[in-house]
Amino acid sequence: MQLSRARVLAFVSQALPIAGLGLPIVIYLPPFYAEELGLGLTAVGSIFMITRFFDVAIDPAFGLLADRHATRWGRRKPWIAAALPILALSVWQIFLPAGAVSGTYLLIWLLVLYVGWTFATISIVAWSAELATDYDARTRLQGAYQAMLMIGLIAVLAVPAVYEAAGVLSMREKMRGVGLFIIVLLVPTFIAAITSVPEVPLTERAHVDWRGVLATLWRSRPLRRLLLADLLVGLSSGVSGSLVVFVMKDALALGQRSGVLMLCYFLSGCIAIPLWVKIGARIEKHTTLIWAQLYSILLLPVFFLLTPGNFWLALVVLMLFGIPYASHRFLMKAIMADITDEDQVRTGRMQAGVYFSLLASTEKIGLALAVGVTYALLDYVGFKTGVANDTAAINGLLGVFVALPTVLHVLCALTLWRFPLGRERQRELRRQIEGAGA
Questions:
Q1: Which of 13, 266, 329, 374 is at a distance of 20 to 30 A from 20, taking alpha carbons?
Q2: What pTM, to 2 d.p., does this model score?
Q3: C-alpha 421: how far from its chain's center?
Q4: 1-201, superfamily in CATH?
């Protein structure tokens, strides 16, 4: 389907509140509830862990459900419409709590939020695979969506900074601002996409049972390899993300400026998206991902050469390090859309929901595992938080920060080597699908 620029913009605008919601869950909300609202680190940590596993568990179940049931309004729009009030209400309750709250309150509203999150995110990415059917058009659409995600991420990072610049230091007020920011973006962007972007009518065979779906998934060699690559990249991103603040604060002695450095890191990743889209248009998408892994492998050792206190050199290196940040986040989705074509030829059904739910699950599992593995390694090398570490501990921190992601990047590149689904194969699949539809 050919979409006008206005419709593309309406579709990708949904990424703004999604990004604005995703980052605070990781960075702001745990300390807010643990310290400001007094629930304690152990209780808050347990609640966020439980709800994260719930989030991972419901993704595939929802993907199967959404693929099997269509309405006269489509398969994707009704779920996005249902997600809108769920997300708006849960964001209001979580970010703007009235007075003191309990652990049960946080647990319930996080579970509600993750239901709405799953409805929205899985439906949006499945819808994107149906809107763009050409190999390179999918790269462009996913790149535009990822760029909007990065803009939303940068914008939500700026909200607390604006409050601080205005002299408002209360975490409760900052979270109130973030919550209102998300809700204000959520309503118009979702409504614009639902009302102005069409769903693609699909001509399909009869429903297959769930066991048939699972058997089809297991037989797909491209799917198995992509999910493994995504898990490895998720692990790598989780390791880097969980350590980069320690590296800046303790190894590079730049703790007071870490916020500015992180903002520039994400900004660099956003600016680089058109570069990765252009590379993906000239070569294969999986080859582009391999180049992104090799780039990171070559750059990571440079962190050993940085001298403590040198802000400008650290800024340059961190911005260079951020260039491939967004590459896998949209290229993996574009490749997954191609894999759904192979499945549609085999089964006669477009089952993007279940495929993208699996992709979402592997990334979340990778990010969750990364924190546990990384912190255990920090303990092993003798690095401690909140104290002055000796040279051996700092070198251990840098060693983990460089070595573990390097190994994961190498394994990811090897997994994607000679990937069995490229541009020519995808276009042949589309010809078969369109021929069957005609």
A1: 374
A2: 0.81
A3: 23
A4: MFS general substrate transporter like domains (1.20.1250.20)
